[in-house]
């Protein structure tokens, strides 16, 4: 046959072009540099510092186990650690009891309004954490809404101080802001169960309860555990809620750590406490994740809306009532803050004293507030810019150069996200101090970058992995070079994810208190300014600031939702 | 040693490729040439290396050794976007953010053509695949068959010399698949572009191709016209993979001047070989002849007795599984109104020796 030819023309037959290998090494340098400077170094410094000691407020570089010995021998510390874990755990369990059934209702029973209901539950995440804590203070305080209502209705003779400054109120607030985390996480799992699994379970003779126990629970427990862990990490790293709501009995390890890096000025002891807290949290979450293993992968994508089985009217009504109750729980505190921002009186008590815009007028005149707003905007701008550029670049590097051990890198990148806020805060203090970066805007930007950039990067990696790999090949095949393929195909396809990453980074940056608190020095951002106001006597201006924030976010979300709907329709 | 034909669109010269971490080579010394305007198919089971050939020709993989020659020059180091080759991907790989028209315009846009020109050419290509009225749709608004045709239009719009098709019909249902086969053949003849068509479906390969290259484990098992492949398989692999064949063990016994073939100890009429020993006979289902045996009757000399084990009704034909001398033999017989074969029936089995191929050990 003339086809079978066996000659060899001279020409290149490179197996592994050396140029590519070198390129791979070069491009991975920035990735490794970031990991070392922003993730590994601060963690090492934290551990290192925990073995140092202070003499008259200065750190002396003599290795010692003194800090750990002090903790071990202090029964007070173990009680505090136990209480910290209990408070967070109880808060997350309460949130689970609310969010898990809710996710089932929204994911499987409500049909037409799923998107709207989801937004309603997730929306509070965008409205600052601080503000939500603050709102609860208004409700639970001695002269707060709850007391006023109870006294005026005759249940109590005089305002009780039992509501605010109690462990129970800390649990309520923890649960309050944990609900959206657990909801998002489990809702994804509920949605993905194909309807025919329910039908085949019924068909096999299982009762509703058996179906839940043997099918729904195993398929959703992993996501629940992840949402639970996320919420646990946020609550355990929160030292603001215990300080503002918890009082003496509600103090947590977070408060202890922050005081060691503040007024008590004993960094080594604070570092040792932080390391211990990290260990305890890792242990607990490890057990929780172990108890909720995931087996198998649900194939077949999302449940088709049209095939969802109609629920019994009674069940639907019950679900709707439950949903309404949760929405009330989530939004009532916010509504009260907005209401008080228009109240003429100086005190946060009912009845309202009359309509007034004076607090809004005061905002415009408060120079320190305006400076804080400007600073927040500057920080947010920098953080978003870094998140988008570096996050995109790193995601592309990790995805396309097929970096060896990419999964390990991703875990390392995610470490700051999984570090309790208060611990990350002091790590960033140590890291930036070691690099000679002074307190202020630069430190804040670096601190916020550490958790905001990985969010964008990981989102993008997920998107890149889901893209049909032949799309980029098709583009090259059709005559587009690498750059043209990037701008014409890849960028339009991942653009939405980049915008989502930017939006998330903006939220994380604008909202952050726990990390930022340690880094601002004398230059507070807006949340820190608000925090200071709350600490050093209250001005109702804060209500007005929050009301404006809520309005801004509502407008932003509405615009974004409408824009997305339009895009989907065309 | 031969040089590739000077006028071939593409020739592969002793291409070998082993993927990182794999023990067996994906391609092992593969050589062939595709002529201008030829419909050339690469047929093989999954893992035989067909996709690797396609990706190497498109430029997404580099061979470890050997040459890919296009237009007289080796293109091993030429990136995909500089090769005069277009691919129709199995997943179609239509850009989801671009309309059908924009998708088809894409290669022209990358080549820097003026907007008016590329609009006109894109419309022409869409007319060719009868998709002109869907120009403004986004890919997700099309059916599977329409997506397939959009991908085809995009691949041919800039008139490449060679079009690679990676199992393009795999995702379509049977009727659409048959319809698309006619479309593809007609289009190929009209455009005069050489097609290199990768498939694991022997029906597709045989029905459309000028020549077929059968791959097994990274090597060429046979290269020839569909008729050669079908009627004169060169080895057991091809015999088994192409068409539906029985592979019957045979013993050749000397009868002095000649050797006669025995199946299960029974001599088969007309089966002779120049050498003795054991062998296997590949015989297509349609070359197995079955005749009902009356009760008590014995089969004619040179044929086998068998019992029907099961019968599949395939519409135009019956596929009958016959147990005979410890072997399971399959035969197809034309279906008729009245049932002619039933389970447990005694039948006489004979072979159309003209249509068999014997492979000695």
What does this structure look like?
The complex is a heterodimer of chains A (570) and B (361). The radius of gyration of chain A is 27 Å and the shape is globular. In chain A, a hairpin with a 2-residue loop joins strand 1 and strand 2. With 570 residues, chain A is mainly α. Chain A has 2 domains: 79-356, MetI-like fold (Orthogonal Bundle), CATH 1.10.3720.10; 358-539, MetI-like (MetI-like fold). Chain A has helices spanning 18-49, 66-72, 75-109, 114-126, 129-140, 145-152, 167-192, 195-203, 208-236, 240-246, 253-260, 267-291, 313-341, 358-365, 367-400, 406-414, 421-434, 441-466, 470-477, 482-511, 526-535, 541-569, and strands at residues 53-55, 58-60. A two-stranded antiparallel sheet of chain A has the order 1-2. Chain A contains 22 helices and 2 strands. In chain A, 40% of the residues are buried. Chain B is α+β, with helices and mostly antiparallel strands and 361 residues long. In chain B, 23% of the residues lie in helices and 36% in strands. Chain B has a 6-stranded mixed beta sheet with strand order 6-7-8-3-9-10, sandwiched between helices. A 5-stranded antiparallel beta sheet of chain B has the order 13-12-11-14-20. In chain B, strands 15-19-16-17-18 form a 5-stranded antiparallel beta sheet, with no helix packed on it. The two termini of chain B are 29 Å apart. Classes of the chains: A mainly alpha (570), B alpha+beta (361). The A-B interface holds A 1-9, 11-15, 468, 470-471, 473-481, 484-485, 488-489, 492-493 and B 1-5, 11, 13-14, 31-33, 58-60, 62-67, 69, 74, 76-77, 79-82, 85-87, 89-91, 93, 95-97, 106-107, 109-111, 154-155, 158, 220, 223-224.
